[in-house]
Write a structure and sequence with these properties.
The structure is a single chain. By secondary structure, this protein is mainly alpha-helical. It has one domain. It is 74% helix and 0% strand. It has seven helices and no strands. The longest helix has 22 residues.
Length: 144
């Protein structure tokens, strides 16, 4: 990322804000078996796949950081965009499962992704980013 250690230490607690918020909303959408909520989250995750930032990062970058007097989050790299794309696909699959009457699959898919997002937000461990590293053998790819 090219950030100084002081800046990294400053923003480290906030890097998990987007996945933690996503996990909380996903838990609610899955618990309620709500296709509209899940579809909205799928669109947000897709935004994170195609934008240089996750849409929920805007909450920190345009509000929280001014209250905490901290630096903005950096642009997200390829592993996080890849993770957002996989997350969007999982949420879409859960949405389809609920719409098609396969509630067990919806709860399974939504619950599994919720656990992954919670781990990413709270422990800064992203399973989908690890998949990216296994597939592409590097931590990050240059932005194209």
């Amino acid at each position: 990322m090219g950030l100084e250690e002081k800046t990294l230490a400053e923003i480290a607690p906030w890097v998990g804000l987007a996945p933690a918020l996503f996990a909380a909303l996903l838990a609610a959408g899955t618990f309620l078996a709500s296709p509209p909520v899940l579809l909205t989250l799928a669109l947000i995750a897709a935004g994170g796949a195609f934008l240089p930032f996750h849409p929920f990062d805007l909450i920190y970058n345009h509000a929280v950081r001014y209250l905490t007097i901290t630096h903005p989050l950096p642009r997200q790299g390829a592993p996080r965009r890849f993770a957002s794309a996989l997350g969007a696909a999982c949420v879409l699959a859960a949405t389809w499962a609920f719409r098609a009457g396969h509630a067990r699959w919806g709860y399974l898919l939504g619950g599994a992704l919720c656990a992954e997002e919670a781990a990413s937000g709270l422990a800064h461990f992203c399973t989908f980013c690890c998949v990216y590293v296994l597939l592409f053998g590097r931590r990050d790819a240059p932005d194209a």
